[in-house]
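Feature request, filed as a ticket because there's no other form

It would be nice if the structure record came with a short human-readable summary line next to the tokens. Right now we just get the raw output. Example of a typical job, pasted below so the devs can see what we mean:
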Amino acid sequence: MKLDSLTPESYEKLSKPYVPSRPVGKNCIRAFLAGGLICLIGQGIQEAYMAIFGMSSKVAASPTVATLILISVILTCFGVYDKLAQWAGAGTAVPVTGFANSMCSAALEHRAEGLVLGVGGNMFKLAGSVIVFGTVAAFIIGVIYALMGWGGAH
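Raw output as currently delivered:
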């Protein structure tokens, strides 16, 4: 068989016996447990801020997120977060800690190229796309809320 005449369908048929099966159920459970653990830790941190500093839940939310980001960056620097992410998959990628991990990983990987072109230039490649899609999604949701009359005055 010539590789030039290989269609996507014939390639899939040819490679199917060699592709390992994916344990989807097991991966979903791991992602659920890891994501839930991150949220549980975040809730514990928020409760601690509320108890120790007398903050309301709304006021304690910002330092809680900042603390989770700090923990994620520290664990990334020591290589712990990456091992957890390999085991848990999407469970560690979805929360804000996953975003912090990916930015920190990019910064560590490109630090030899310098602060501006290495760290700054490569760290924000991921951040740019996340910010763009987040902004577009927020705009679309805002338009839907405005059209449906759900916004209301605050």
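Something like this underneath would help us a lot:
The chain has a mean pLDDT of 88.
The CA atoms of residues 22 and 28 lie 11 Å apart.
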